[in-house]
Amino acid sequence: MSIITLSNLNKIYNEGTDIPVHAVNNVDLSFEAGEFSVIKGASGCGKTTLLNLLGGLDTPSSGNIIIDGVEIGKLSASNLTNFRMNNIGFVFQAYNLIPVLTARENVEFIMHLQHKSKKERKERALALLESVGLRDRADVRPGKLSGGQQQRVAVARALASKPKFILADEPTANLDTKATENLLDIMENLNKVEGITFIFASHDDRVIKKAHRLIELEDGKVIG
Amino acid sequence: MILEIAWKNIWRSKLRSLVVIVAIAIGLLGGVTAVAFMNGLLIGRIDDALEIEVSSIQLHNADFMENSELKYLIDNVDDYIVDIEKDSSVKAVSKRLVIETMLSSNRAAAGLSLIGVDPEKETQVSRLYEKMLDSNSTYFVGVKNRPIIIGEKVAKKLKVHVRSKLAINAVDVNGVSVRSVFRIVGIFRTQNGGFDEMNAFVRFKDLQKILGIEDGKAHEVAIILHKMLETETLKNTLQEKYTRYRVNDKSLLRVLNDSIPERVYSKLLSIKSDKEYSKIEFESMLKNSFSEKTNELYTKQVLTACETGIKVSEWKQLSPELAMQTSWIDFVLYIFVGIILAALGFGIVNTMLMVVLERIREIGMLIAIGMNRRRVFSMIVLESVMLSLVGGIVGLFLAWSLVSFLSINGIDMSMFSDGLRALGYPSMVYPYIEADNYIKVTLMVVITGILAAIYPALHAVRINPSIAIRE
User: Fold this and answer.
1) Among B8, B365, B370, beta carbon nearest to A96
2) Which domain holds residue B185?
3) Do residues B32 and B87 share a domain?
4) Please, what sign has the CA dihedral across residues B442, B448, B453, B454?
5) Chain B partners within 8 Å of A55 (Cβ)
6) How confident is the model over B311-339, as pLDDT tens digits?
7) CB-CB contact of A92 with A153 (8 Å)
């Protein structure tokens, strides 16, 4: 059953000027629950733009995005923010953890936005940190963690809100080989054991190798 | 958690936050202390003004207030004093005789108010006895026959000293010129040079005898209350009780000057007499004399114009410039602190804008993962308020400590004493500020924090997460 459907999706930057940039060009795609997909392509091919559109962080120039039966283009700004919070997990290239909070507090943060109880927040945050192998680093701030560890905390944070899928934009770009393997093993395991849906945007072969499904982009178009 | 994040965010750039905190603290320390100083100066002035010059409340013959002639006396003054002393808010009461006269030594002369007082009663109402210049000066002690106390400035002007003789030229109740010799027993020096120059004191009984005034009469009754400044209730009670109404030439003249219609004036003219009425009696008479509509429109003005009997005045009326300064001191605090905070507010805007610009990616991430813009706005405002509050609390604590210390030890302004005396202010100032003003200033700091955060917070909520997280 598909949880995401993109139909005739376009994103054009500098529209109406002499040099419009067609970052996403007539894309029709759908994603099934439990997928471990990678959108690959050269730099500038539109991977990140497509991921941003999927995550409701950017608005398409035309076309529809339907997530779990909801056409997100029709949501108001505040409803879209709430929709993201409850349905989509994000893992960014630069980890983007809150530096003044500990690893546990970073994971708890989104649950706080969801008005979860303190007890529930703490228990789930610790369980998630356990699942990414960082239970013993729960009370450490991001500045004291390695890049790989920070990205694992980011994965735990992305899972905290119990999203329908996780979007990961170049999550391994700043990691060394060992940290990358470790992170990918964890994500693969979460996919296999807990059925978490992952959609990656990456040109990293190590990520591509793990993909169950590869979507190749070139100049904004899906070519494979 | 937002509160916790906001608090932790303040300390991300310790140096920058400390600069803002120190700036706010110093600003408030300066502002609050300056206002406390002005307040202390004013309190010193008011204390002396009430305890030496005007007291809390004064009673006079209503006509004496318009024209301080010898004949406008309060009759049966001792009955009034007994009545007033029954009120529990009253600390002490003293009667006085007051005449404008010329004092002359064998070398010079000076015009001033000569006040006859009962020394024993007067010391309970006035602290003038504490203001004697040196050990040679006493408050009516040492000379049995006609002692007089004069101000230092008068003594210099007349070139006299303690035990010198002074002649008084006056006109008695019968219109006869009288001349009498007094001996100086004391020279006083208050903080108000003008008061020292314009007043001299003799014993009530001496002045009464010279002027030929009968027993039971006085020009002035001075009342000091336990709470010196809280005069309004007693003033209104006494005024209600002691005011009488009369239609005579004087009141008719006031009616003419008060844009009351001619027909009302004519009617009042027809009932002119020297008879005095109580308020109820007078209102009843007006009711019978005028139509209901005329009464409705003009009774208040006619009552004011026809007031006679005893005029009760509180210190605010006797010294309106002090009353005005008292009512303005809070306003001065708000203006002072407001200007300081407005200037500091721009510094906070700058700091918070830097905070937002430095954290664009992080704020973008927060919006991306589901933090709505209202919460982002609140977080920035909270950071600004907390930053301002820390500075505010530090500043107010320092100000409170300094003001508390100075309120006990005082600030010696004797190098400016001549100028201060000319204005009636003390040369030793004890800064003071009401406790509730600290709360009000804290609120002003919070408001500054909120206002200063609005622009940076609006900047934060407009961040586009898809662009910000790639920065």
Assistant:
1) B365
2) 55-226
3) no
4) positive
5) 368
6) 999 998 888 888 888 888 878 888 888 99
7) no
